[in-house]
Amino acid sequence: MTQLVLFNVFNGLIVGAFYALMALGLSLILNLSGVINFAHGGFLAIGGYLAFTLIPYVGFWGGLVLAPLLTAVLGIFVEWLLIRRLYGRDPLYSLLLTFGLAYMIEASTRFIWGAQSLPFQVPGWLVTPLSSEYFFVTGYRLFMVLVVAIAVVGLFLILSRTRLGIRIRAGTLDLETVSLLGVNVRLLRNMNFGLGIYLAGLAGVLAVGQLGLQPTIGGSLIMPSFVAIIVGGLGSLPGTLLGGLLIGVVSGVTTVFFPSATEAIIYVMMAAVLLIRPHGLLGDEGRF
Amino acid sequence: MDKPKSLVHLNRRTMIKAAAFAGIAQVASPFIITARAADNVKIGLDNPLTGTYAALGKNELIGAQLALEHINAKGGILGRQAELLVEDSTSGDAGTAVQKARKLIDRDHVDFIVGNINSALAQAIANVAYEKNVFHVVPGGHTDSVTGSNCHWNVFRVCNTTQMEANAVAGSLITNAGKKWYYLTPDYAFGHTLQAGLERAAAKLGGIKLGADLTPLGTTDFSSYLIKAQAANPDVIIFLQAGDDAVNALKQAVQFGLDKKVHLAGAQQELEVLLGLPPEARIGTWVFEWYWKQPDVPHVNEFVAEVRKKSGGHVPTARTWFGYAALWTCALAAEQAKSLEALKMAKAMQGFKLPPDVSLMPGGAVYRASQNQLIPDLYVGTAQSTGSDPEDLFHVSEIVKGADVAGTLESTECKMTWPA
Fold first, then answer.
1. What CATH number does the domain located at A2-276 have?
2. What is the reported pLDDT for B25?
3. How many helices (H) and strands (E) does chain A have?
4. pTM of the entire structure?
5. CATH fold of B39-160+295-375
6. Residue B240 distance to chain A (closest CA, Å)
7. Contact A248, A16 (CB under 8 A)
8. What is the Cα–Cα distance from B184 to A247, expressed in whole angstroms?
């Protein structure tokens, strides 16, 4: 029993790292622009489908690099065309817009690639388990955690060391002042949205390595990410990371004791956090 | 003081205009449809086109459309052309499915209603059809109650009950994989009845249940379940998931190398799932409800060729056949009864055997009297990574007669009452 719990804690961290990657992208967009991007799962699906289409030409690694970039370009275009018109309005407007956008993306992927699940394959040597006892630690899953770690470190470096990052962080705190200082806020938000969607695209390519590739894939993965943000605390990127890891572990350990509640438990956890610490574990008080 | 008054006045007038318009629309549209109804016999299809079951829904639609072409080419239904009205029921929202069923029946005045893939939605539509006295065919919702404890005189089902599937495959599972089973079961009606059915069937053959975990519908990561199942040290992990859940579960189990430690198998399997899996994960013993590769069965090759033309080169799946047989059931019921009256048609279909060019299976298929459940052949075999055709992913090792696995009428718990 102890071993089963330990296995599930370890396994939960791997799963949680993935939730965190999706949640970080969502969190970036939410913090700077106040947009609750319900279409994030749709962009994730697009990332997966683009990789599936590109891999025969550029190989797995080429697809892993190119697909998220192309998804980000699409995200930048969508922000320019639709989302920026709703800044400054009640968040409900952008919520409704992105909600509709999620349906449009799902229908479009179904139209282009078909409703049938596609057999996405990763290189054989990557999916071999590292040991017989720890069979759930495959090369691919470790690689996924590594990519998430690189993305997280990269994101924190961008946010703390680059001009763009410093502006994003400043904008998160006080957009008006940043704007008065001569920063092009429109461009800043545009690039920030692109960065968030890049993470969605990356999560998409990684996800379809171990899931079936179908138009609804984004919808089923997005809810844990929202919960990760709320548990971790709105406005805090480390909080989002912590939230993602935490729900991965809690949901994994629940399997040992009460398997049918693995999904429900993350919402119970969210409710508990909202009751005891409404601004989340690491969130700023008074935000939203 | 005046201003608000005039505003109220304006609002009221607008409201009255809107109400009048809505009223006219209500009166006008059935009139137009009634005029059209005189010409065509209408079949309403209330099935998923979006969501988790979209791929299955699309294949049932292709089958239904092909059947419609065949029916009309042979002179239609009672000498009138047949028409198919298609509505998206969604994959899981019973409210929408019921609303669409009511729309098809009340506004479009369909003579038949066909649907649904989701068992819960199928049952919900069946209740509406029963209340409205409309002939209803369920193409692909498997849970037992549809033609069991909740059966109705007007509701017919093409696909098997979960108990039939369980009875058909249990013996082969024990022979091929072993006696000690661990179940991973999707947490909704279909999964529950399938597991219960397998437990009953396996117990008779000496099967042992080591454990069972319910997985929420739409689970993406199965790793924690697989860790637990493997720890119980079974001969076989039984996967009862359907659709995308099945793809996710099997893909992950094979990536973990579990196929090298225990058998991975289950009961119901579908070509749509095997097509979505990478080749190395197409393994295990399963039961198919229909398979396209039956070179010795008359009419099957022609059917496959025609479906390929309609679906961009893809072969028909069991779902395509469900849609095809469901629409033909409507047409045959009318012809058999020489009427479009639901009661007469339902009586005419009691014990009715589908003609060979519709049943498309070696032993044929019969609607069992007093249950309205189609009793077809079932195809037990193993999944294969490659075959003679890119879509030949199942090796049939045994054809099981439906009559041998359907159980007695009493065991289905269907107590049908007919209107006076």
1. 1.10.3470
2. 41
3. 10, 0
4. 0.88
5. Rossmann fold (3.40.50)
6. 14
7. yes
8. 22
